[in-house]
Task: structure prediction
Amino acid sequence: MSYKVYNKIPQNDFEFLIDQGLKPHHKFLDVGCGAGRIGYPAMGYLDSGNYFAFDKEKVEVGTFRYQVMNDPSKEIQGKTAYIVEDDFSLKTFKPEFKFDYLYAYSVFTHVGPDLISLFLTNIKQYLNDDAVFYATFMLGSEG
Result:
């Protein structure tokens, strides 16, 4: 897949979320954000302070934070984003955080059943009553 085609995929995914009702005032959680695959279009669209993200990989989170802080684009300049390292327990999130939309692209395919279960158990306390969660995964045989 070419670099140009790959870079269009996050935008297409984000357009899907907008088509599903995501609005700038919604609180959005990017589950397993990596180095910001969908984070950039999300931050550009959402009101400041409404983009939240985590990943269990310290290097990915550090890279993403660095890139956001040094990004010259007007779409994300001056916007507040909450990007943290978390082991899927969500212990780094404040109890008052309540999310409207959650998105996990190819996360559950890679983290295994223990982390999926941990996340699904703990996320309940952070959801607004009408929260929506979209996730992708691939089914396959064990091993």
